[in-house]
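sorry for the late reply, my laptop died twice this morning and i had to redo everyting from scratch. anyway the thing you sent over, i finally got around to it. pasting the sequence first so we're on the same page, its 504 residues, then the predicted structure underneath. double check i copied it right bc i was rushing
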Amino acid sequence: MTLVQAPAHAKPFVLEEATVESIHAAYRDGTLTSTELVKRYLARIDAYDQQGPTLRAFITVNPNALAEAARLDAEYKAKHGHVGPLHGIPIVLKDNFNTRDLPTSGGNAAMKRSQPPSDAFTVDRMRRAGAIILGKTNMQEFARGGVSLSSLGGQVLNPYDLSRTPGGSSGGTAVALATNMAVLGTGSDTGQSIRSPASAVSLVGIRPTRGLVSRAGVMPNSLTQDEVGPLARTVRDAATLLDVMAGYDPKDPITALGVGKHPASYVAALKGATLKGARIGVLTNVYGKEPRHAEVNRVMEQVMRTMETQGAQVVRFDLPGFDQLAGNVSTDRYEARAVFDQYFADLGPNQPVTSFRQLVDTKSATPDVQKTMEAEIAIEDGMSSAAYRERTLNREKLRILLAAKMADLQLDAILYPLQRVLVAPAGGVDQPERNGVLSHGTGFPAVTFPGGFSTPTASAPIGVPVGAELLGPDYSEPRLLSYAYAFEQAAHVRKPPVSTPPLR
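ok and here's the structure:
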């Protein structure tokens, strides 16, 4: 970026639905500074998070955000605009990402003042790229569940329908982005925790290939299933953040598998993106067939029709054996105790909680999460159990089953709804009928993107968002993102919620 004087014809900057590209353009033409941008986002947080619709997306708002913005404005001027790819971009972090200057709670009251000694690997990369950490977001407590309810932050609400949840567990990040309280955000995904809220509030979410992005410094659930990735309003912005997050980290050795496997830029992969000639598989096993599935199925049929008009070939298929395997591949309950104890060991001794046992004994979590953690800690040496070995073997069987079918049918990607039914009402059960297992059970990457909206109702004036998802083999993120981008540019699905209008 090069600093230039504001031209006389420069248009006023529009905050709502702003992108990294539009913000950087405003910086270049002199119509915006980082300080002004942060002030405007803080005003929206003040108006909508703890009052108005009371969305409860945030646990902590960074008190140093304006000072950091001022520092970046000075750097921009001194370097004549030659700065990092996220320069002056306000980002929100799910509150299980370690930050050296803000507490990391996992949404739990007993962890409210837990202060990590250093940033997570990905957080450090964001800061080095010029990002401003605007705050830490609410989440399903310890990422154990899918409705974004925590003992510290309460229930996050879906801004498209305030009677519903925003999915989870990364619901606070997703709501902050959907309501234009920040530009980019991070989530973690053990089952579908990036993609569920992306689906529920009309965002793009990426669960990357296992080994592409470091999980070091992120509060864990599972050694095998955990991934971290970006959330954004557009495919290009999600790709921009993935460019920064991806990379080898010796503190998470699995990332060695990703060395040399990703492109120089995921954003560059979007150039000339097209669906023409793509063979898109539709796995019928993961589509519902009951009346409760009608709204989601209607949206997905429209997604298929749009892709076909863009030149894609849709191939519907059934996968025998999938249902039996898919229900027996989760390993998180057997790994949780060991990985969480390692997290506490890395935090060090001077913390309010220093072990998983101590955490469980505080009985501070919401009832469902407390019950889950008590079940996890009761498993002694889970990774040596016969059940764990069986599930690990089933994961490999599922990988091979999906990969072989894609090869047989010459498929470029598989398309399905992340959630077979609309996102759950607040105050009820956990989100049912999610399809996250295709990615978390195999390690294959998946990209969720806005597919459409349900029929409007009194509580959902423009409808409830429905997310579509594309899955492919290891390290196929460039292809998946290019297909999602081509659909996004053709369909223009995303609309901001009416519950958080522009401020005057």
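The domain at 20-491 is CATH 3.90.1300.10 (Amidase signature (AS) enzymes).
thats about all i looked at so far, will dig more tmrw
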